[in-house]
Amino acid sequence: MEAAEAEYFSKDFEWDELRAEVENDPSFRYHLLPFESSTIPSSQTTTRATTAEEEEDSTAWKRFHIRHSSGKFFKERRYLLKEFPELVSCGESSKVLEVGCGNGSTALPILRGNEHIIVYACDCSSEILERAEEIIDAATVVPVRHRFRTFCCDFSVTGLPKWLACHTCREVFLQKQQNCLSDVKESHERHYNDSNSLKESTSCIGGMDFVTLIFTLSAVTFQRMPASIKECFSVLKPGGMLLFRDYGLYDMTMLRFEPNQRVGFMEYMRSDGTRSYFFSLDTVRDLFVGAGFIELELEYCCVKSVNRRNEKTMQRVWVHGKFQKPM
């Protein structure tokens, strides 16, 4: 296990070398071309088109989660505690918001690694939230369920519920940012009381110490990313941190997409309707600094893995980032 984790973290190749290889290969040239949409919506249809796109994206991910509801599709992300040791060393009763939690593969190692931390987790699929709760119940002999609190929400469409954010933080944010913390239907504003049963709540829980965006932002359309990041900014306490990990530019999966799967510049759509964006460091920096964050760490994580079945080497690229809300 330790050897496997070490291999997962290591810098197996230089990103600049991969970049040169890809950009000099004619077969990959279509990835680098400016993207031109085949249709340009008029001002009268833009709002309707955006709404329909949001609904289609959400539906596609719900279908994806139902199809992979067994949990076998995702592996527990044990590397996160090494990548983000702040989750282990933080103070007692620190609160984490895991955005796009899926089946709990991110939340579980966090709960195991810190017996005092509380994880709030949201996803657009109520079915996958139920599955995440089941997996976390069954995955450990140490009870952690009382520290795992779920609510259904698509942060890129409806925003995050107001009860997550400290009132003072939200007021300051509203004064400085035009895109404010959005309302969410009361049916989505749920969390656990002392008896672990779900209930509606409109009372503020004091804001988050951490927000994690782990392979979540890439599933959002690029146009909605700035507002989505501002939502995360708004629920953090002053000095709170956002921990980011997602697909990097020229990752192996990006190079496998066909030209007709491009839906934007560095943005692709899979056959099942789910999206994936591939980030450069400059893009990530612009998005998060533009939302008000201070950059603490930002780098490519480049890993070679070998498919034992066909003995092919795969070059994986992820972006690792830590960002802080100013005090």
Automatic annotation (TrEMBL):
Listed SUPFAM superfamilies: S-adenosyl-L-methionine-dependent methyltransferases
Q: Which of UniProt's keywords are assigned here?
A: Methyltransferase, Transferase
Coiled coil spans: none
CDD domains with a match to the protein in the record: AdoMet_MTases (cd02440)
Task: Please tell me which top-level EC class this enzyme sits in.
Answer: transferase
Record-listed E.C. numbers:
2.1.1.-
Q: Which Gene3D superfamilies match?
A: Vaccinia Virus protein VP39
- One family from Pfam that matches here is Methyltransf_23
Whether Transferase counts among this entry's keywords is yes
Q: Name one GO biological process term.
A: methylation
**One annotated GO molecular function:** RNA methyltransferase activity
Describe the function of this protein. Answer: S-adenosyl-L-methionine-dependent methyltransferase.
* Similarity section: Belongs to the methyltransferase superfamily. METL family.
Provide the protein name. Answer: tRNA N(3)-methylcytidine methyltransferase
The organism encoding this protein is Quercus lobata
> Top-down, what is the taxonomic lineage of the species of origin?
Eukaryota, Viridiplantae, Streptophyta, Embryophyta, Tracheophyta
UniProt lists the gene as LOC115982382
